[in-house]
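Honest question from a wet-lab person: if I give you the sequences of every part of a complex, can you actually get the arrangement of the whole thing, not just the pieces? Trying it with mine:
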Amino acid sequence: MITISTLIAVPAIAAVVLLVIPFARQAAGYLALLVSLAVLGGVIGFIYRFEPAAGYQFADNVSWIEPLGVRWHVAVNGVSLAMIAVTALVTTCALGFALWAKRDRSHASAALILMTEAFLILVFAARDLFAFYVGFEGMLIPLLILLVVWGGAGRKFATLQVIAYTAFGTLLMLLGILYLGLTAPDGPNFDMATAIGRGNDWVFFAFAIAFAIKSPLFPWHGWVLPAYRQASPEVAAVLSGVASKAGAFAFLAVLVPLFPAQAAKYAWVFIALGTIGFLWGSLLAFRQRDGRGVVAYSSIAQMSFIVLGIFLLSDRGATGATFQMVNHALVSAALFLVVGWLETQVGSDSFAKLGGLARRRPVLATVSIILGMAALAVPGSSVFASEFLIMLGAFEYRWWLGVIVSLGVVLAAMYMLRWISAILHDRESGLAGTLNPPDLKQGALMAILPLVLVLIGLSIVPAQFTDRVDASAQELFSAAAKEAGR
Amino acid sequence: MSVGIPMFLAVSAILFTIGLIGVLLRRSPLTILLSLEIMLNSVNLTLVAFSRQVGGSDGQVFALVVMGIAAAEVVVGLGLVVAMTRRSMVLDTDELRTLNG
Amino acid sequence: MTELVWITLALPLVGVALLAIFGNKLPARGAGLLASLIMLAAFGAATVALILLASKPEDQRQVTETAWTWLSAGDFRVGFDIWFDQLTALMLMVVTGVGFLIHVFSIGYMKGDSQERRFFAYMNMFVFSMLVLVVSGNLVQLLIGWGLVGLSSYLLIGFWHHKTSAVKAAKKAFIMNAIGDVGLAVGIFLIFVDLGTVSYSGVFASANTLSETQASIACLLLLVGALAKSAQIPLHTWLPDAMEGPTPVSALIHAATMVTAGVYLIARMNPLFFYAPKVLDLIVIIGVVGLLMAGAIAIVQTDIKRIIAFSTMSQIAYMFVGVGLSAYWAGIFHLFTHAFFKALLFMGAGLVIHALNGEQDTRNMGGLRKLMPKTYFCFIIGGLALTGIFPFSGGFSKDAILGAGLHVDSTIGWIAYVGGLLGALMTGIYTFRLIFLVFHRRMSPYAEKVAPPLIKHHGEGPSSMLWPVYILALGAAFLGLLQIPGVTHVMSSWLEPISPYGMVEATAGQEWLTTLIGSVVGVIGIIIAAHLYLRENDAPERIRLGRGRLIAHALERRCYWDNLYEWMFERPTQWAASFLNRDVDATAFRWLPTDGVGTITAFFGRSVVVMQNGIVRSYALVFAVGIAGFLLYLLVRGT
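Yes, you can. This is the full assembly:
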C-alpha cells in the first residue's frame, strides 16, 4: 500500500541526491523536473483512488521518538489532498521556470525547491503535532536559503525580516505543541487526534498567532512584502502560492478541529481581522507601482479572505475557503511567474517603465488578461465560484458582512485592471519600446500554461472539486460549529 | 555593666556611618579601603556586643571570621593599589571608569 | 429542441476557440467571414428553436434542462441550465440576428485594422456571454453571463489599447459594471437565504412566501445590477465614454444587446418583482428621469456617436418605464424594435465616419445628403422610428409603453405618460438635429476635402457594410406591424405567458390616442429641430451663450454626474489607499514589527545604560540607598 510517505520521501531523497552528486548543469534541472512530475503523477493517482466520504486515508502511523510519544503519523483527507495536489503542480511549474531561467548552481536551487516540496507535503499530511512542526518549520529552511542566495538586491534584509517575524510565531507554536503533547492523559502523546479539545485559550492563541503570521493574516502581513519582492520568481511563486497556504490550511485543519470551543468563541476576532485584511490589502494593492507589489498585496488580501471563510464555521465558508486556497495558489503562482518573466525580459517590473506590451505579443496579452480576470474573480471563473461561496457564507453569518466583503471585489477589479493596463496598454513607452522583448513562449510559457489550464478546467466544472472536498471540510469544522450553536 | 548595650550599638552605628560616608565621598582607593575597614570593624563591635548580651560565643566567632575576611580583602585591594601605582595610573576611582556601558 | 439551444449557445464559443487557436493562420478577411458564418448558423438554430417552441401549445412553452452541476456546497447547488421560453426565444433571435448583421458590417468596417482577428474573437465571445445570460435558468448562471458580458465589453471598448482614452473608458465601464455585479450578487445571497434556491423555477414557485420588505430589498439589489448594465441613473456614466470602442461595438453592445440586459432581467424576474410594487414604481421614476435627462444632454452633444449613445440611454429608460409599469411585453417589444433602429443609426454613423476617414465631430460634417444618399435614407428611416412617428416600428413600441401608463391611470402612470411624451419631443429634436447637422447645411471644410475622393473611390461603403444596414432599415420600418393596436397582437400574446401574474396592456382606443399624440409631439420636435438646425443659423449659439447658459453648461458637463462620482468615490479611495499605504501600513505593519522592535529596544537600552557609568562610588551609593530603603521598609512594616 503506497502511502503519503512516499510523496514526502521521493522529493526529499531526490533533493539530497542533487545536492551531493555533481550533475551537469541542465541535467540537474531536468532531473528535478522529472522527479516533481513523478510526484504530480503520484498525487493524481491518489486523487483517483480517494473516497470523499471516508475521512483520512492513505495513512502511515509508526512510532518515531518512543520516549516522547512522537509518531510518524501522516494521512490525507479531501482538503489536505487538494493542497498536496496544488503543491505538486506549483513546484513542477516553478522548477520548469527555474530550468528555463538558467539559474547558476541550478542543482542546488532545484534541490532546495524539491526539499521545500517535501516539507510542504509533510505539513499538509501530518497527523502528529511533532511531524507537523517539523514540516512547518522545516519548509522555511530551504526557502530562506533560496531567498538569500538567489534573491534580488534587498535579499539579505528580506531574509532577516522573514526569520525574525516567523521565528517569533513558531516559538509560540512550539510552546503550545509541547504543552499539548506532554500533558496528554496517557503519557506523552503528540497525535492530533488525542489533542482535540484539551487546549486552553493561551494555547489556542499561541497556535493562532503562529498560523496568522504564516498565512499572513492582517495585521501580521508586513514580512511578506520584502520576501515577495526580492525572491526569484519561482521562489516567490512557491512562497505565495503554497507556503502561505500552509498557514491557512493550518487554521482549517489543525486549529479549528483541535480547539473547537475556542474557535467558536473567538471566531469573530478572525472574521474581523480577515475582513479588514481583505479590504486593506485590496486598497493598498491599488497604490503599488510595481507588478510584484500588486500581486503581493493581492495575495495578502486573498489570504485574509480565506481565513475569513474558514472562521465562518459553515459549509459555504469551509468549502469556499479550501477551493479559494487552491485557486489562489494557481493564480498567484502564475502571476509571479508572468511578472518574473517580464523582469527577465525587460529588467524591471515598475509600472513607470512598462506599458504597451500587448502589441505583437498576443500570448502574453492573452495569458495576462486570463490571469488578471481570474484574480479579480470574473463571474464564471473558479475564483468567482470560491469567492461566491465565501461571500454567501459571510452573508449568511451577518448580512452586512456579506455586503462589505462584496464591495472588496470591486476593489479587486480596480487594482487588477490597473495591473493589466500598466503592462499591456497605452503606448509602447519605456523599456518595452527600447528593448522590444519577444512574446511569451517556449520554456516560460510551458511553465505557466499548466496553471492556466487547470484554472480554466476548474472554472468549467468547479463541482468536480467541491464535491470531493465538501465532506472532509465538513468534518473539520463540525465540532466548532456545534460549539457555536449552528 | 556601667555602659549598656545601647551605648555599644550607638558607637557601632556612628562608626558604620562614618565608614559609609567615607566610602561614598572619597575618591582615593586607599581611603575607600580604609573606610571599608571602619565599616567592618563597626559590625564586629555590634556582633561582640550582642554576643555578650545574649550569651554564647556565636557572635564572637563570627567577628573573628569577619576579621579574617577583611584582612584578605585588604590584601587584594592594596595589591590593586600597588599595581596601579606601578603603572603610574591616577589613584582616583572617578577616573577609572572604562567598564561603563 | 433544447439541443438547438445548446448549439446556439456553443457556436460562438467554438468561434472564439477557432479564432484564438488558428487565428493567425487565417487570412484577414477569413476571420470576419468565419465569425459571421458562425453567427448565421447560430441565428438559424435560434430561429428553428423558436419555430419549434411556437408549434407547442401555449401552456407548454417553458422548457428547462440542466447540463451539469456547476457548483455545490451543502444545500447550495448551481447547475449549468437553460430555460427556454418565449422571452428567451425572442432574445436569442435579437442577439444572434442583429449580431449577425453587425458581424457582417464589421467585415467592411474593420478592414485594414491589423487586429481584425482579435476583434472577431472578442465579438464572438461577447455573443457567447450574452447568450449564457439570456438562456440561464438560475440566478448564478445569470450572474456569470452578466460578468462575462462585462468582460467582453471591457475588451471591446478598449480594443484600440494604445489609445489611453479607450483604455480609461474600458476600465470605467468594467468597474461600474462590477458595482452592479455586487448588487446582483448580494441580491442572490438574500434570495438564497430567504428562499433556499437560486434556480428560476424554485424562486418563482416560492416567491409568494416573501414579505414585501424581503421582496423589495431583493428586487432593489437586482435593480442595482440592472441599472449598471443598462446604463441608467445613477450608474450610467460609463456609457458615453464607451463610445471609444469601434462603431460596430457600439452598435452591438451599447444599443442592441448588453445594455438591454437590465430590461431582460426585470422582465425575466417579474414573478419576484410582482411582490415589490414600490420597487416597480421606483423603476418607473428612474426611467422617466433618465429619459428626460439623457434626451436633454443629447441635444447639446457634438460627437455623432455620443448623441446616439445618450439616445440609447434615453430609450432604455423607456423600456424601464415599460417594465416598471408591469407592461413587460411592451418593454421587450421596444427592446426588440430599438435593437433594429438603434443599430441602424449606429451603423449609419459608422458609414459616415468611414467616409470621413474617422471624423466623429458633427461640427466637421454637413451637407452629406448628396454624397451619401443611401445612408441618408436609412438615417431618415431610423430617425423616424426613433422619434416614434407612425407607422414606423419605434412608434408602436414606445406608444405601447406610454399607453400602458395611460391605462394604469395612477400617479405613476401619468408621470410615465407625460414624461414619455415630453421625452418624445426631445427625441425628435436631438434626432433630427443630428440628421440636419450631418446631412444638411453646408459641408464643413474638412468634409469637403476628405469625403468626395473617398466616396468616389469606394462608394458609400462596401456591400458588406450596406446590406446589413438595408435589412435593419426594413426592420425599423415594418416591425411595428407586429403589434398594431386592435389589429395584430403578435408581441403581446407571445410574451404574455411569461408573466404568471398578468401584464398591463392598454386598450386599442388608448393606444391609438397615444399614437396620435406621440406622433404629433414627435413631429413638433422635428419642426423645432428644423427651425434651429436645418439651415445655417446662429439661434442655437445665441441660446447657448445667452439665456440658456446655465442649462447648456450643465448639459454639456452631462449634468455633473462624472464630477460627483469623482469627488465621492475616486478621490477618497485614492487618498485612503495612499494614506494607508504610505503612512499606516509602511510604519505600523512593515517597519514596526521588524525594524521597529529593534529600534525601540535599542532606545530603551540606551536610556537605561546611562546608569552604568563605571564609577564605583555611584554603584556603592545605589547599594546604600537600596539597603537603607529596604531596612526602612522592614521597620515601617513592623516585622
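Two things worth pointing out. Chain A touches chain C through 64 residues (CB under 8 Å). The CA atoms of residues 98 and 117 of chain A lie 15 Å apart.
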